[in-house]
Amino acid sequence: MDVAELQIELIKYIVHTNDSDFLQQLLQAIKSYRKGEDWWERIFEKEKEAIEIGIQQLDNGEGIPHEEVRKEINKRLGLIGY
Asked: Which of 22, 30, 39, 57 could make an S-S bridge to 62, C-beta 3.0–4.6 Å?
């Protein structure tokens, strides 16, 4: 997708959503990006801990490949061709 297509997709999504929490988070992310802030500094300690645990699990070979997760989700949702 080129820049113009990305802009159009974002505009469509923003215009058609009524999720004020999502819009607030998006606005905050854009403002932080412009200021050069690191998202890591804005998240809660519990979120940081969860991310660090996940990284450790991946380092230990305990991860599940993306394709397996997709297949399982499609299966649970009853989507054809999972």
From this structure: 57
What are the tens digits of pLDDT across the range 26-40?
998 888 888 887 888
Q: Total domain count for the chain?
A: 1
Q: Which domain holds residue 44?
A: 3-77
Give the separation between CA 30 and CA 13, rounded to whole angstroms.
Answer: 15
CA 21 vs. chain centroid, Å, equals 14
Q: Which among 44, 14, 16 is positioned nearest to 27, based on CA atoms?
A: 14
Q: Do 63 and 57 form a contact (C-beta atoms < 8 A)? A: yes
Does this model's pTM top 0.70? My answer is no
Asked if the structure places residue 28 within a domain, the reply is yes
